[in-house]
Structures are given as C-alpha cells and as structure tokens.
Amino acid sequence: MQQKTKRFALFTTILSAIIVAVFCLAYLTANASNRYNFSGQGIVSENNLNEKYIRISFKQISKQAVSLAGTEPVTIRVNQAKVYMPNAAGVLLKFNQDKIGVGTLVTVYGAVKSDNTFSASKVTIVPRKFKIRGKLIAMRKDSHVFTVDVSASTYQPTKYAGKSLEILYTDKTTVTQSGGKKDIAKVEPLNQRVIINGNIVGDDVFEAVQLNDPL
Fold first, then answer.
1. Which of 146, 149, 202 is nearest to 169 (CA)?
2. Which of 32, 41, 87, 135 is paired with 213 by a 20 to 30 Å CA distance?
3. Which string of DSSP letters, residue by residue, matches 9-52?
4. Which residues of 101-119 are buried (b: 16+ CB within 10 A; e: fewer)?
5. Using CA atoms, how far apart are residues 131 and 152, in angstroms rounded to an integer?
6. Which residues are paired to 46 by β-bridges?
7. How far apart are CA 182 and CA 169, in angstroms?
8. How many angstroms separate the CA atoms of 210 and 208, rounded?
9. In the prediction, which pLDDT does 117 show?
10. What is the C-alpha to C-alpha distance for residues 90 and 92, in angstroms, rounded to an integer?
11. Rounded distance, CA 97 to CA 75, Å?
12. What spatial distance separates the first Cα and last Cα of the chain, rounded to whole Å?
C-alpha cells in the first residue's frame, strides 16, 4: 500500500511537471517573435497600402528602440494595426490605413520583433491644424506660396507671432470674401489683413485650406 502511494505521488509530480512545461513552452512560443514593446511619434514619409506598411521618421521613440530607429525613416508593419483619429470633440474614430497621409504626424504603439522589425498594433493620427491672422505681404503664384506677416497663430504662437511666414496653397485652397467665394488667381498681396486656416504637414510646413481675403 505504501509503495502504491509512493508511485502515485511520483506520477502526480511528473504529470504536474509536464503540465507546467507545456504551459511554459506555449508562453515562450507565443512571445518568441516579440523582443519588446515600443511607442513613438513621428512623420509619415510613405504609406504602402498593398504591402501593408508605413515609413516613419521618428521624433520620439521608446529608449530601448532608439538605436534601431536611427535617423532614417523606419518601416512599420501595419497589417494588424488599428488606425484611429480624433474628431473635433476629441473622440477617437476608427479608420483604414488609407487615411494615413504622407506628412501626417502619428503616434504608434507596437512591438519590435526578434528580427528587429517593427510591427504596429495601434496607429493614431495626430491632427495639426492652424489658424493664422496677419498681413498678406507677398504671393508667388508660380510656386503657390503666400507670405504673411503673422500677428496671431493658434499653432505655436510664441514661435510664429510677429514673424514672416511662408504658407503653401494648392488648387484646392478656397478663398472667401464677404461670405462669398473668390478666384485665387485674383488675390493680390496688398498688405491686407487676412485669416488663413490650414494644416501642418511634415516638419512644420504650413498648407492653406482656406484664405479669407477682404479685397
């Protein structure tokens, strides 16, 4: 009887060891492909919809990943990532990868794999809008550039207020005048006070969406 009890105890010990080993192996296998998690923020330089990746020039990244990120754009796999962007009320809305525009500022969360590649689990688009008041002192129509003496800016006001600033515009930029619309080709820089709304792209490049021209 005592021998049977010893055998049963030995069998139980061996079985427990096997179960623990199986769970440990499963855990290690599931996590073997991930070296560590990372987070970072940077500017998107490429968005490849077919191959499911984006390239980012990081401005900030987790300390552990700094050496891998370097100074060149980094390829981030986004095939398993969820993409979000806040609305005007600050509520995060879910979008598809095609919403990530080149020049967009994004925050990325994900993992560095065992082969030192980056894979994102979450990408959040960070809107960078501006509203500038000032005087329109110059306009290069060949290169689509406004030059404005800035009196007030909602984007980094201490940096831009009181300075001359170049603002890009495109064929999609609208011009309003007294509640109506005006042909952008008829705008002339006459030191008139203007209000310009737009977006920041890339490294603090101002791109106009709308210009209010009183003349």
1. 146
2. 87
3. HHHHHHHHHHHHHHHHHHHHHHHTTEEEEEEEEEEEEEEETTTT
4. eeebbbebbbbbeeeebbb
5. 8
6. 55
7. 15
8. 6
9. 95
10. 6
11. 14
12. 106
